[in-house]
Amino acid sequence: MKKKIINKIYEDTSWDFRTEDTKTTSQGIHNYPAMMIPQIARRLIELYAPKKGGILLDPFCGSGSSLVEARLQGLNSYGVDINPLARLIAKVKSALIEPELLDEYIKKVKSEVINAEFNNGFNLSKIEIPKFNGLEFWFKKDVIKRLQLIKSIILKISNNSPDIKDFLLVTFSHTVRDCSNTRNGEFKLYRMPEEKLLNYSPDVYKRFIGKLEYNYEAIKNFYTECKKIKNYNALWVKILDEDTRKKISIPDESVDIILTSPPYGDSRTTVAYGQYTKLSSEWLGLNNNKKDIDKISLGGQIVNSLENQLGSESLNISLKHIAEQDEKRAREVLSFYIDLDKCLAEIKRVMKPKGYICMVVGNRTVKGIQIPTDKVLVEISNKHGILHKETVIRNIPNKRMPSKNSPTNVKGKLSSTMVKEYIVILMNQ
Ligand SMILES: C[S@@+](CC[C@H](N)C(=O)[O-])C[C@H]1O[C@@H](n2cnc3c(N)ncnc32)[C@H](O)[C@@H]1O
Q: Which one, out of 89, 235, 374, 390, has a CA that is 20 to 30 A from the CA of 115?
């Protein structure tokens, strides 16, 4: 139901999708924090993408939910993300992998894993385990060996088939997280309590095979749906290992629509994407350059002063109130918006005139002050010649976002965070 419209902002519960399945086609193959639900991406594409197709860009693509929906609606797409595991998941979710071929490989992997389960030909004591800090803190010894065995089977069987190998590695990554000593349902890295760990003995092979079967059906379903699209074979998805604050490898004025959910704030106090993906990335060797993802994420580097040229009155008011309590926290908050401003400049460069920019944002609370990111975004965008069309407020019905966080940064002191999301629609001039 639509509620009263004030300054082009209104609540509309038809965007809640309260009872819908959010794991349609390939969307559920791997968890990722703050995923965009497919129904929102789908509806925004229907409303704001050109009817004849075109190019969609998600400049913070994460696990690629918007890229999946782009392909399903006949659009080419670019995804950009600084997190290597996110890019791998996005690639697999949006790729066209031939189900029959996939099935052949899955059968081979399954049979080797099942053989291993009965120790037929494999000696667990001889398995060479990976080396990274905290390995034995985050995984039990037997789990480490079994995971390594699965990984070696995957590499042996699929080394010459890159798409299949990526699919298997994404499934493996999910299993790593699932069989680790981390507490369930947390985005940050917290270990299970000792007493729980004592009796914790996950069946690694069973969990991997179960996930393999689930993911196979998901990818097959995606493939079947994609085939219904005219010219489905000619469509492309390009996933870029780049930083949206800098110049990205996309030509000027080439993008028809932007569809994205940027981070909610700096990683330290909101969602720590780097922490969430750390263990899987170590297992997959994706942390080779040893960059701390959370430090290179938006707002990862704190600015020295509260002075800024962002031109957002709403932001300046919030910063003033936060600074009255804690000046450093205010600078941390500002760092995020300064980075967002750099991304908007890049978005402006690649966008076609009159193209739509759809951004799903959350309004976080810092020191008891709620920062109206939806309004800040509109005000900063104005500076770039990107104008506000409307903002829809929706309820977040499930537990996709943490409902509590630690805005004061005092351990254990939690307060409620966002239960609403803002779908901000902007148009390039
Ligand atoms: C809210 S998540 C996106 C989730 C995504 N919509 C999905 O469905 O999985 C925001 C993403 O922004 C990425 N990110 C943060 N800073 C970035 C930057 N400077 N350039 C590109 N991506 C960045 C993070 O790694 C994270 O994956």
A: 89
Say which CATH superfamily domain 9-86+224-270+293-428 falls into.
Vaccinia Virus protein VP39 (3.40.50.150)
Q: How far apart are the CA of 262 and the centre of ligand 1, in A?
A: 6
**Predicted model pTM:** 0.93
For the four alpha carbons of 367, 372, 374 and 377, in that order, the dihedral sign comes to negative
Domain residue ranges in the chain: 9-86+224-270+293-428, 99-223
| Residue 356, number of CB atoms within 10 A of its CB | 21
- Characterize the bridge pairing of strands 351-361 and 420-428: antiparallel
CA 71 from centroid of its chain's CA atoms? 18
Enclosing H/E stretch for 25: none
Ligand 1 midpoint to CA 61 (Å): 5
pLDDT, tens digit (0-9, with 9 covering 90-100), for 234-283: 999 999 999 999 999 999 999 999 999 999 887 777 777 888 899 999 99
Point out which residues pair with 255 in neighbouring strands. 351
Residue of the nearest CA to atom 26 in ligand 1? 62
How far, in Å, is the centroid of ligand 1 from the Cα of 303? 21
Is residue 243 within 6 Å of ligand 1 at its C-beta?
yes
Say if residue 157 is exposed, middle or buried (CB neighbours under 10 Å; 0-12, 13-18, 19+). Answer: middle
Distance 83 CA to ligand 1 centre (A): 8
Helix (H) or strand (E) holding 365: strand 365-366
Query: Smallest Cα–Cα separation from 369: which of 306, 309, 317?
Result: 317
- The closest alpha carbon to 56, from 25, 78, 87, belongs to 78
